[in-house]
Design a protein that fits this description.
Helices cover 29% and strands 21% of the residues. The protein is of the alpha/beta class. The protein folds into 2 domains: 6-130 and 310-322, Rossmann fold; 133-305, 2-Layer Sandwich (Dihydrodipicolinate Reductase, domain 2), CATH 3.30.360. Strands 10-11-9-12-15-14-13 form a 7-stranded mixed β-sheet. It has a 6-stranded parallel β-sheet with strand order 4-3-5-6-8-7, with helices on both faces.
Length: 330
Amino acid sequence: MGLLYPEARAFRVRDRIMKHRVFVDGQEGTTGLRIHEYLTARPDVELLRIDADRRKDPQERARLLNTADVAFLCLPDAAAREAVSVVTNPHTCLIDASTAHRTDPAWVFGLPELSADQRQKIRASKRIANPGCHASAFILLLRPLVDAGLVPAVHPISASSITGYSGGGKKMIEQYQATGNPALDSPRPYALSLAHKHVPEMMVHACLTNRPLFMPIVARFYKGLAVSVPLHLQGLPTRPDGAAIHAALARRYDGERFVRVMPLSDPATIEAGFFDVQGCNDTNRVDIFVFAAADQALLMARLDNLGKGASGAAVQSMNVHLGIDEGLGL
């Protein structure tokens, strides 16, 4: 399982709790603020805070990064790489919420449910790349099917995702919460260059050899996300039916705390025939659905894009790394 440095544990010494020192670099952003919300009430965590007038002081940031047992990087890609470069303390675990390291083989992908040994890798590593929100849902749908041989790695895959506007960060949140722009009233497909930043990690960690065709859509609701993957079953070499697809997903996630595979094509899982994209909001849960007909299946996964899709996933990885209750604070 990998050894933990003694100073990176919380333990009791003469009835005094030794706390994990945690620093959030980029604490003013959407993801950083939510991580602070998760951790503020935890008695096993000491949150290291940077003074407002020193946020751009590189020496103070470097000091805090190297003081922390765990440091979350809630930064743009270039700034995250810069932050990594100043960490010299071998005991500091970095959890990077940017896209900078998600396909870097020197970093562990922070999705504990990815494979049987992923938790062991997260526990042992000091460099953890937090998954993207769309990517988490997509990978959790496809990876078990590729591993089971039901979907070949070379199979052409397309996917769409509908998400709340909080995933676009502060600027987009301000745009949607302001009034008077009718263009924002209807759902808006984007990333039409077919080069969304989550596509590389979707391909690598779902073990696909071809780049998936992915179209995200942002709509006027704050948070919540659902990824949909259509499959023509007759085009798959083993020609599985919906039950076989569902069974493979159910086997893979049996016993998982934060992944729930819903009953196959059960109308009770949706209300009046409409899918609730926000059904996992304010949880760290992923709900997986298989809707199937004779020769087709529609796979869907929903999550809270600010929870399991971002901050919740980061805290979950921190818990796994520290060897404590995986759901603590979630």
